[in-house]
Design brief:
The structure holds 2 protein chains of 2 kinds.
Chain A (H helix, E strand, L loop, with lengths): L7 H19 L5 H8 L8 H26 L8 H49 L4 H13 L9 H15 L2 E2 L6 E2 L13 H18 L19 H23 L5 H15 L11 H25 L5 H12 L6 H6 L1 H32 L4 H20 L2 H19 L5 H23 L11 H28 L1
Antiparallel strand pairs in A: 1-2
Chain B lengths: L1 H11 L7 H20 L17 H23 L10 H19 L2 H15 L5 H22 L8 H7 L1
Helix pairs in contact in B: 2-3, 4-5, 5-6
Chain lengths: 487, 168
């Protein structure tokens, strides 16, 4: 499995990707999604395997890196580390920052490795199943992926669905792929090719974050000093091993679901850790189980999210949407054929994820103190630099200044979306699934001679439609349950 | 939690046209309606060439869906108002205006100059007054990025007063 990775070039890429991912994870507001999007143009200088290895190692390490900031400055480096703040920071305040980070590092590594095992076993099975899929089944699957947006994060399900629909709408800009008729081009030649993925991602994540940071320039972080990271004691292992395993399972499962990702996984992992704990009253006050539950789950979601991405071409999370774009621009078409035709390529990715999880353990264990210092770089210096890289990176893909303006437009839009409670992640998922949804719908209607009811005669498609209804109903059931519990 | 409740109550006391939920919903609906009208200008494929549905049908359906869902969030917000957001600080508007300046400068003068000007302007507005750091973010770093992109990716930047000097 690791054989394709035993080249000095790939190991160097892996090393650099893990290091870069950790730095991105540590810096609040950046993270693996933005970082992956920024580095995507550079991957054009690499061969496909190196490019995807770079992106996946950034994904794994970036997800873990968020925990360092969560524990030391009570600000999640990535959204997936939000649940880690709840107990990581209180424990650090008690003078046990090293213990908190030690547990975060161990549970992240176990969760990550667990999820790679899930990926190795389940991705080929799912890919095998995908051979049964025709256009109607892919349409139903894409709809299922989109309806799953209703239950991502803590945001309003309807707002998430609006954002997802908006993402699909963006994908319709340009020449219609079946008839070559211009749509929403407004006479601008550059728009006939459609709106690129990178300007939208960099705009929605990096530029909107820059605007958010501009509103926080007077914010002061209370940093907790870190002497040294400590491996968990025997007692801690005894207390948390069940939680780590449970959260690894939960994280992997949530990751496999289309559109869900580390953020949802960590929140569920955390709440389940609390539910099963013998000391639930300690949660929120520095519980070591709370840290283990959240961190194992968010890193377990990384491997899980790669399952639908590689087997079906449906992103499991926002970062895997970037990885999916990386695959496509390097001419690799995800799906069942990839498993049959390029097994070496796939096992290279699996192996890279495994090594990345071990590498971030080593880097985290020995370098957390240094990485923590990265947060000391003032925003007034960091963000103008990120702006320069974002602009050049966006321009470089098509050498188009219009792309840069589109990026800035989406930056402003993303800022206001976030301000009013609309998550930007569904826009990305909608954009990446848009062509699949429309394409498979129109091709299915050709097959069905325009009869929409024929969708319900296909068992697999029908199953996905039922799952979609459940996904839509889930937030309603959840909010009623919360209301009932509060009453 | 108490703070959020307070902010929500504060929102409820405002006239409806000042509330965020009204303004946001109105903005989404106006843009969606404008785009919906645009879809009626799309070319129509003759029946003999048409496979499945017309190219305008799918965006139309999406826009109608967005309008319906927006009405729904507005209806829900009348029962459970959104919290009042804090006023945006001056630094936000300065950063936003720097984006506009960037677009104007990159189109009329020079791409590099636009990056450099924005970096210095933003850094200064965010509180950086030390000349060395302003030069670092505004000149040294953009030069490194430019050279890196040019040599590693073989990128050619758009012509402009400074870029032309570099290329000549």
């Amino acid at each position: 499995m690791l054989a394709p990775l035993f080249s000095s070039k790939l190991l160097l890429v892996l090393f650099f990707g893990t290091l870069f991912g950790l730095i991105l994870g540590v810096l609040p507001g950046l993270g693996p999604t933005t970082g992956g999007a920024l580095i995507l143009p550079f991957t054009m200088t690499l061969d496909p395997l190196s490019a995807i290895v770079l992106l996946t190692s950034i994904y794994c390490a970036g997800t873990y890196g968020g925990a360092i900031t969560a524990v030391l400055i009570n600000t999640p480096g990535t959204p997936a580390a939000a649940a880690t703040c709840l107990d990581g920071y209180p424990l650090a305040q008690k003078g046990e920052a090293g213990r908190a980070l030690g547990m975060a590092t161990v549970s992240s590594t176990v969760g990550g490795i667990f999820s790679v095992v899930i990926l190795v076993f389940f991705a080929p099975i799912l890919a095998q199943l995908a051979y049964e899929f025709g256009q109607p089944e892919y349409f139903a699957l894409a709809i299922f992926g989109l309806t799953m947006l209703a239950s991502i994060g803590e945001g309003s399900p309807i707002k998430n669905l609006i954002a997802g629909a908006f993402g699909i709408l963006i994908s319709t800009v340009g020449k219609d792929f079946m008839t070559s008729i211009d749509r929403f081009t407004f006479g601008i030649n550059e728009l006939t090719e459609g709106i690129g993925f990178i300007p939208v991602v960099v705009g929605l994540f990096a530029m909107s974050e820059m605007l958010t940071q501009s509103t926080l320039i007077n914010q002061v972080f209370n940093r907790i000093a870190l002497k040294a990271i400590k491996l968990p004691s025997k007692d801690d292992y005894k207390k948390t091993w069940k939680t780590i395993l449970r959260s690894s399972g939960i994280g992997s499962f949530i990751g496999v679901l289309p559109a869900e990702g580390g953020t949802v996984a960590s929140l569920i992992g955390y709440s389940e850790a609390k539910r099963f704990s013998k000391n639930p009253e300690e949660f929120g006050k520095g519980s070591i189980e709370g840290i283990a539950g959240a961190e194992a789950a968010n890193n377990a979601a990384t491997g899980g999210a790669m399952v639908p991405t590689l087997a079906l071409g449906i992103p499991g999370s926002a970062t895997t949407a970037v990885i999916l774009t990386g695959l496509i621009i390097h001419g690799v078409r995800p799906g069942p054929d990839l498993f049959r035709e390029q097994p070496d390529f796939l096992y290279g990715i699996f192996g890279a994820m495994l090594i990345a999880n071990i590498l971030f353990f080593i880097f985290g264990f020995f370098g957390a103190k240094i990485f923590a210092r990265i947060t000391l770089v003032p925003n007034k210096i960091l963000w103008p630099m990120i702006f320069a890289v974002s602009v050049c990176g966006t321009y470089s893909l098509n050498q188009s200044i219009i792309d840069v303006w589109i990026m800035l437009f989406f930056g402003v839009l993303g800022f206001f979306m976030r301000r009013y409670g609309f998550s930007v992640v569904p826009v990305i998922i909608g954009l990446i699934l848009g062509e699949l949804v429309e394409g498979t719908l129109r091709q299915s209607l050709v097959i069905f001679d325009g009869n929409w009811l024929m969708f319900f005669t296909r068992p697999i498609a029908l199953t996905f439609f039922i799952l979609s209804l459940i996904a839509l109903a889930f937030p309603l059931i959840r909010s009623r349950k919360i209301k009932k519990n509060n009453d | 939690m108490k703070n959020v409740q307070k902010q929500k109550r504060a929102n409820k006391s405002l006239p409806f046209f000042f509330r965020d939920e009204f303004r946001v919903s109105l903005a989404i609906i106006l843009v969606s309606v404008a785009l919906l009208i645009t879809t009626f200008t799309f070319d129509i494929v003759p029946p003999i060439l048409n496979r499945g549905i017309q190219p305008a049908t799918f965006p139309k359906a999406l826009l109608v869906l967005i309008i319906v869902m927006t009405l729904l969030i507005y209806y829900l917000a009348t029962k459970n108002p959104w919290k009042v957001e804090k006023k945006l600080p001056r630094s936000f508007f300065l950063t936003l205006s720097s984006f506009i300046i960037f677009v104007v400068v990159s189109k009329t003068l020079d791409f590099f100059l636009a990056i450099s000007a924005l970096s210095i302007f933003v850094s200064y507005c965010w509180g950086e007054k030390r000349l060395f750091y302003l030069l670092l973010v505004g000149i040294i770093f953009p030069i490194i990025v430019f050279i890196f992109f040019e040599t590693i990716l073989g990128l050619r930047f758009p012509p402009g007063i400074i870029t032309n000097i570099y290329y000549s």
